[in-house]
Amino acid sequence: MKTKIKLMQKLAIALFLMAAATFAVQAQEALTLERALSIAETGSPDLKLSLLNLERYQKNLEAQRAALKSRFSLQVNPVNYSKQRRFDNRVSEWYTNENFETSTLFTVAQPILITDGTISLTNEFGWSSNNSSSSFTESEVFFNNLYLNLNQPLFTYNTLKLQLKELELNFENARISYAMQYLNLERRVTEFFYNVYMAQMNLSIAKDELANTQKSYDIIKNKVEAGLAAKEEEYQAELNLASAKSTLQNSEVTFENAKDQLKLYLGMDLFEDIMILADVSVNPVPVDLDKAIENGLESRMELRQREIDVETSQFDLIRTKAQNEFRGDMNLRFGITGDNNELGNIYQNPTKSPSVGISFNIPIFDWGERKARIAAAEAAIESQELNLNEEKKQIVVDIRQVYRNILNQLNQIELARQNERNAQLTYEINLERYENGDLTGMDLNLYQNQLSSQKVALSQALINYKIELLNLKIQSLYDFEKDEAIIPEELYVTDGQE
């Protein structure tokens, strides 16, 4: 009976372990590069920050455009009471004045984008009760003031147009930054992805090395026990085995760290396990250097950003010139006022109330402040124009460097393949020599390390070629694998944007 219970317990434990293993396999997500890019498009913190920045500038622009439309406002003053002691200069005596008033003020204001002026229509309606001790009379009237007002700056720059244009440029710059971040996202994800792949490959190689080292140790141990090899050979084999175990542990740590970095950048759950599925095979892609440079100079978004910097500097110059400048303000007003103790007769005897006001600000002497500030703003413009020219040169240099790296990586791939084949054949020959007793364990370990290094070198060369090809795509905004140009405007479109 006890034996059956023990068997049932062991069976239950075995089933539990099998279920746990199955769950672990199912929970582990197989991650391809395409899948990683798809996850990053919605989960990457960097892309989310760029999108939030884009939304901020978009809403600022929408707010400015809304501010150019008519504004409606209503001000209500339900109670306004005062009782004051005043002096009347006409009769040289003091009197008490008591006033009670209630009113509403309705205003429609319309900014004028073309002229930077503001035209407004205002209507004030209310009721007033006034009592004065000097006349011992009480006056109760309804009143209504309706007037049209125009305020127009003169001889100065249009602030409304300048603000709107500046916000439009800021929004365009934010869209460009988002598009650049989107392209950079592909490069960063690819780098993180292949870092995990290389760590995964190093771990696999370390496992193979440990298995081969264990096999070599077992062979030499049997030989030592049979008296066919010296004891120091067994010591060396033990040392090689310990070193292989240490290398495996280090590879496991590196692999886990690389996975965490990838998940962090993708915005994935850090506790979700992943497995990398990568195709590092390379088909050489024909690349036209002249075409890459031409398309880069025509399409690179950094150039437009430098142009925006130049335009923004020119706006600063306009504002600087407006400091201590000759300018004027004109205010025109035409209105009609009526009052009566009966509401229906407010405009029985209306009073017209036109007014015109023109004022000028005339600077006389500012000790050279305005001139110095203008010179500083002009220097800033020249600096931005210089940055634009240097950006063009840098684009050409970067594309040339990437092109040379691509050609070099193709050569490195062929060399790495040849070296990997030679290292494999060399290891197999020396493994046979080792089994025959013609080679020491230390020498075999060197050949095994050489084979592992060449395998890693070949994979790294293949990955370097893929990354450089991606760099060329980003630098030139031309995809030579698909033989089509990347249109920057297509990268600007996001959900919720115009």
From TrEMBL:
InterPro entries found in the cross-reference section: OMP_efflux, TolC-like
Coiled coil stretches, renumbered: 374-423
Record carries keyword rRNA-binding: no
SUPFAM superfamilies from the UniProt entry: Outer membrane efflux proteins (OEP)
A Pfam family per the record: OEP
GO cellular component term of the entry, any: cell outer membrane
GO MF terms held by the record: efflux transmembrane transporter activity; porin activity
Protein's cellular compartments: Cell outer membrane
UniProt KW keywords: Cell outer membrane, Coiled coil, Membrane, Signal, Transmembrane, Transmembrane beta strand, Transport
Signal peptide extent: 1-27
Assigned protein family: Belongs to the outer membrane factor (OMF) (TC 1.B.17) family.
Name of the protein described by the UniProt record: Transporter
The organism of origin for this protein: Draconibacterium sediminis
